[in-house]
Amino acid sequence: MDKISLSGMQFYGYHGVFPEENKLGQRYRVDAELYMDLQASGQSDRLEDTVNYATIVDTIRGIVEGKPYQLIEAVAEHIARAVLAEYDQVQALTVRVIKPNPPFDIHFDGVSVEIYRKREQ
Fold it and tell me: Which pLDDT does position 103 carry in this prediction?
């Protein structure tokens, strides 16, 4: 299966279990790998034969910058569901949500979740 990768997207959201996370918010990073057949678009060179990744970025932005969730697992799940629901060409995807500054008393590169979801047959 072919793949389009959207790497290092950054959005500001208000997700977390603690009230200060919901009030102050923080920057989140999101990576998405979209698995689909790219042969037709590769041969035709027409946007109509693929997905417009700019609109997928807007879909992801709406979720990360929208309704607060307690868990980044829920953020990732909602991204996956929305992409599969809105873009028929996408057969499967991997979504990684990175919370670079969780409220822990330790310095590290953050915490992330990664999920893989595919279209039901």
Answer: 81
How many domains does the structure of the chain reveal? 1
Helical pair 53-64 and 72-86, crossing angle rounded to 10 deg: 150
The boundaries of the domain holding residue 89 are: 2-118
Which helix (H) or strand (E) segment holds residue 9: the answer is: strand 2-13
Only one residue has tokens 């500001």, namely: 12
Residue 10 dihedral angles phi and psi, to the nearest 5°: -125, 130
pLDDT tens-digit series, residues 39-80: 999 999 999 999 999 999 999 999 999 999 999 999 999 999
Residue 27, pLDDT > 80, answer: yes
Q: Which positions are catalytic?
A: 99
Other CB atoms closer than 10 Å to residue 50's CB: what's the count? 20
Q: Which CATH number fits the domain that encloses residue 113? A: 3.30.1130.10
Tell me, what's the pLDDT at 101? 84
Cβ-count burial 3-29 (b if 16+ within 10 Å, e if not):
ebebeeeebebbbbeeeebeeeebebb
